[in-house]
Amino acid sequence: WYDKIPVQTVVWVANRDAPINDISGVVSISDNGNLVVTDGRNSLLWSTNVTVPVAPNDTWIQLMENGNLRLQDNRNNGEIIWESFKHPYSSMLPRMSLLINSKTGEN
């Protein structure tokens, strides 16, 4: 239903503290396997900043139909290492978790 809204709405921004105001932004997987956003000067603006338990070439990203962006482990049956739904911005989408584990702080 969300993709049927007539006015496009941004629901999540990786680098909201350092927006890129031109077309120089690049999204890629870094040498340490994290998803990163860099600008035209190759300056790091944002990173998933997680410990990746696999070789950098063994991670990949997938944008799910529900809008969840995932960093996944290619060697471990696509295990999710990081996902945008666990880092909400200002909008809730269907299937996003509202619960947080009080012991671990995880959704």
From TrEMBL:
<dbReference type="Pfam" id="PF01453">
    <property type="entry name" value="B_lectin"/>
</dbReference>
<feature type="domain" description="Bulb-type lectin">
    <location>
        <begin position="1"/>
        <end position="84"/>
    </location>
</feature>
<keyword id="KW-0732">Signal</keyword>
<keyword id="KW-1015">Disulfide bond</keyword>
<dbReference type="InterPro" id="IPR036426">
    <property type="entry name" value="Bulb-type_lectin_dom_sf"/>
</dbReference>
<protein>
    <recommendedName>
        <fullName>Bulb-type lectin domain-containing protein</fullName>
    </recommendedName>
</protein>
<keyword id="KW-0325">Glycoprotein</keyword>
<dbReference type="InterPro" id="IPR001480">
    <property type="entry name" value="Bulb-type_lectin_dom"/>
</dbReference>
